[in-house]
Specification:
The protein has 385 residues and is of the alpha+beta class. It has helices at 25-35, 87-95, 125-133, 146-152, 198-211, 234-246, 248-255, 269-280, 285-293, 329-346, 361-377; strands at residues 11-18, 39-50, 58-69, 75-80, 118-122, 157-159, 162-166, 172-178, 186-190, 221-227, 303-304, 317-324. β3 (58-69) and β4 form a beta hairpin.
Length: 385
């Protein structure tokens, strides 16, 4: 890592961890709340997963997460599942030869006895959200779908260990089932935006995690969320694309990107082509925004730019997805400061140059970073602060 300067940007963090066998993300939430004289509230976290039903690409699901508030009612963080974290759980269970009926009650593969430990599934995101909205914070698995069943005026069906709701025509609305063994262990710590004291704020969450034996799983990453507003113009957007394409290998080398991380990837060549073409023509932001929107970008790239493609996103941030998994607040802050400096450079309308030919990728990034910090020192109020 290059020598860093203090992190002054307003940043939200997502830190992916794994609880030890026999523990859970809820246990960490309760530990953090206890240390702050606060409280824990169950929330339902939306994600998607591949479907096992022929002809159906994916299911949407809700899984239990836990919002931690401090004594004054301010949110400290929310702890949620991350479905990409699988390898450590699989290896732990294989090492103990878990999974069969003879292991019923085993602490590695038993179902979590917590009545919160269920998930709700649907093939329609709107119906899934309705199911979540009609499921109270204290609702147990036994009553998980009662609310949405009442909305449609139908009864909840019980099929073995699964609860199901269908409408009057028999069309599926939602299902509920227990969490798969081990799925209480993944723990993505999602913070609200932090304006200052980033390391201290992170350590207030990561210190208890280390004390409870949480670790960095194989597929882990740390994601950064910074305000998207400053990048909603043609020169800044073009510079972000140039940074994450021309300097991609340097970014991965300097930040230490985890090669086992999933749901990341290079920005598509079509994006670079559109940005270069529109930049040469002097396109204003609405035109560039529309041209990029037609490419159908997803969030699962090195940098998530999807919020910039609409003026009313649900979460108005630019998301950097290539930091490695970490369990130390200072390590996270150092890397975040590098990213913040480079993004500040993107806000300078001067185009980011191509890396010098024949220069190693990490060295080229160091040169760009030095230039970025030199420019930043000449500004009294960084745009991302």
């Amino acid at each position: 890592m290059p020598t860093t300067e203090p992190l002054t940007a307003r940043v939200g963090f997502e830190v992916e961890l794994l609880a030890p066998a026999g523990s859970s993300r809820r246990a960490l939430a309760e530990r953090i709340a206890l240390e702050h004289g606060g409280s824990v509230h169950r929330v339902l976290h939306v994600d998607s997963e591949p479907s096992l039903v022929p002809g159906m690409g994916q299911f949407w699901h809700l899984t239990p997460g836990y919002r931690i508030d401090d004594a004054a009612g301010n949110e400290l963080a929310t702890l949620v599942d991350d479905i990409t974290i699988v390898e450590d759980i699989r290896r732990d269970q294989l090492a103990a030869r878990c999974g069969g009926p003879e292991h019923r009650g085993c602490r590695l593969c038993r179902p979590d006895p917590d009545p919160d430990a269920f998930r709700i599934l649907s093939d329609d995101l709107r119906l899934l959200r309705l199911a979540g909205d009609t499921t109270g914070e204290q609702t147990s698995f036994r009553h998980a779908l009662d609310g949405i069943a009442n909305v449609f005026g139908v009864e909840v069906e019980t099929i073995g260990a699964v609860r199901r709701v269908r409408d009057h025509t028999g069309a599926s609305i939602a299902m509920a089932a227990a969490l798969a063994p081990g799925r209480e262990r993944p723990c993505e710590i999602v913070t609200p935006p932090i304006r200052s004291g980033h390391t201290e704020a992170l350590e207030a969450l990561l210190g208890p995690a280390r004390a409870l034996g949480f670790r960095v799983p194989v597929e882990a990453a740390v994601h950064l969320h910074l305000d998207a507003g400053p990048f909603r113009n043609s020169p800044a957007f073009a510079n972000v694309v140039r940074l994450f394409t021309a300097y991609r290998s340097g970014l991965h080398a300097v930040l230490g990107t985890n090669p086992h991380c999933v749901r990341t990837g290079a920005l598509p060549e079509a994006l670079t082509t559109v940005v270069d073409t529109e930049s040469r023509s002097g396109a204003e932001w609405p035109r560039l925004q529309e041209a990029v929107r037609e490419l159908g970008l997803t969030k699962y790239l090195d940098v998530n730019l999807t919020a910039l493609l609409t003026d009313t996103p649900p979460r108005d941030t630019i998301e950097i997805r290539i930091l490695p998994g970490m369990l130390d607040g200072a390590d996270i802050t150092r890397r975040a400061a590098v990213v913040a400096s480079l993004l500040e450079r993107c806000l300078d309308p001067t185009p980011i140059p191509e890396p010098p030919s024949g220069v190693p990728s990490d060295e080229a990034l160091h040169h760009l970073l030095a230039d970025a910090r030199s420019r930043l020192r000449g500004r009294s109020h960084p745009a991302l602060a």
